[in-house]
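Database export, one record per block. Field names are fixed; values are copied verbatim from the stored entry.
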Amino acid sequence: MRILGLDLGSRTLGIALSSADEKMALMKETFRFAEGDYDAAFEKTLEYIDRYDIKTVVLGYPKHMNGAVGEKAQLSEDFKAALEEERNVEVVLEDERLTTVMALKTMAGLNTDRKKRKANVDQMAASTILQTYLDRKKG
């Protein structure tokens, strides 16, 4: 069984999938959409759920550094509720504070050029969010 990892932004959706044994997060793509067009991001997510028979989705939860929940976190909560209503999936909100920073540092450490880092940061962040969940799940 595979698990889907998502990093939802205002114009991009970073997408990662777990390996079949649920041990490793693998980057898939960065889906770009018009600013605020969360319906497009939702439809793309449904495509992945259906294509890979996903039962668990790990969605980034963008809390403020002090732990407070703001407007972007509310968007994640709404996205979660809509996914659970539309498909029979469990959506886990995973704290995503600093995942973009970690993704950029990882790619910089791999000597990835700036253009590639910018193009892939969202899927790397989704992979980081998913890997955090997978690591915690296996204990």
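Remark 1: The beta strands are 3-8, 12-18, 25-32, 56-61, 90-95.
Remark 2: The longest strand covers residues 25-32.
End of record.
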